[in-house]
Amino acid sequence: MSTFLGFIEEIPGISVDRFNNKNKESSVFFLSHCHSDHTRGLCYSFWNMLQDRGLFLYCSPISKTILESQFLDVKGINVIQSLQICDPVIVSYKDSNNAEFVKVTSIPSGHCPGSVMFLFEKNDQVILYTGDFRICPNDFRNLKPLHDLQYVPKKLHKIYLDTTFLNLDFKYFPNRKECAFQICSVLQDWLDENSRNVVVLECSANYGAEFIFEKIAEKLGKKIHVKDFLYEIYLKMDKFSRYVTNETMTTPIHACMNKSDRNVLKCRPCSDVKIENIMTVVPSAMIWKGKDLSRIWQWDQTRDNTLNVCYSTHASYEELVAFLKYFKPDEVYPCVCKKEQRLEMYHLLREIAKESEQKKDDKKEYVLSKSLQERSDLNSFKSKHFSDQED
């Protein structure tokens, strides 16, 4: 869960992934993806404020599609601007009524549909905001906006980093292909066992399990039944529309439930599906804390016929270490850091810095500036437009 307050310290006047309280005093806004802990403050009054002040929110084309589907009136007022992936643009804004400009490049972050990182370049400062991300270390070199023409990593002065799993309890995660393969194998056996058997995919967020949907549809030849409003959004995305359906009875695989709806399948008549015919699959990483992370799946010890799968859309500890050692930023700001985690997290960051930059001054550490450290606003933002179920 993001604890980032939305302000890029080096670029006053802009807000990223936070749209309430003092963030509304900014003159330009950026959204990395559409999960609820990154959309605090997005509501109709916010869109009206943008229209009244002639301001814009920038995001990826897919995020724009999601926003315009969830806020039906926002499309007509033209306050959302989409940034084409890896295509740098100059964005104008104001700081203390002075006209300013910043070069912005959106970069795929591998977290969920439409999720991006933002590379900000201004006054010789190069700042990367990762949002939520998971990128295979073998693919770092393919992030062209983060390299020069000779494929040398750019000098990053600061990274605002997704530190969800900067924790030694989550050193390693299996890759998503391995997870999807195992899910497909278990599902195939279960569905072959009895024609009345069904599967419930218990997803932790509205968006983020699409890779699993895709592989299930390809391997098993069956679409996934999703919530009606999500189906309408997927129809606007060619990549995903072929894998989902809103027809309850045409598929035994369902991702239409809320996390609180356990051991039932509300979209089907009770007489049609009995409890013993339901297998629940939980793709998640948080529940694997303290467990054997080399195992991709295991049966839940407290819930009947429930399969827990170690599936993450956030970088593991080892992947975060690889990312920092590859790009070697001068400073790191942890965007997921509760107060009780602060000492341990900064200790880990200092150790990573020492390992990756032995030739630099040992006094240079990843330090959180007091102006940001002392600010705290962790109140959750409630909205009917965004699920608040995300990890």
TrEMBL record:
GO terms for molecular function: 5'-3' DNA exonuclease activity; damaged DNA binding; endonuclease activity. It comes from the Eukaryota. Pfam families: DRMBL (PF07522). It is found in: Nucleus. Keywords: DNA damage, DNA recombination, DNA repair, Endonuclease, Exonuclease, Hydrolase, Nuclease, Nucleus. Residues 243-338 form the DNA repair metallo-beta-lactamase domain. GO terms for biological process: DNA recombination; double-strand break repair via nonhomologous end joining; interstrand cross-link repair; telomere maintenance. SUPFAM superfamilies: Metallo-hydrolase/oxidoreductase. One of its GO terms (cellular component) is nucleus. Belongs to the DNA repair metallo-beta-lactamase (DRMBL) family. This is Protein artemis. The lineage of its organism: Eukaryota, Metazoa, Ecdysozoa, Arthropoda, Hexapoda.
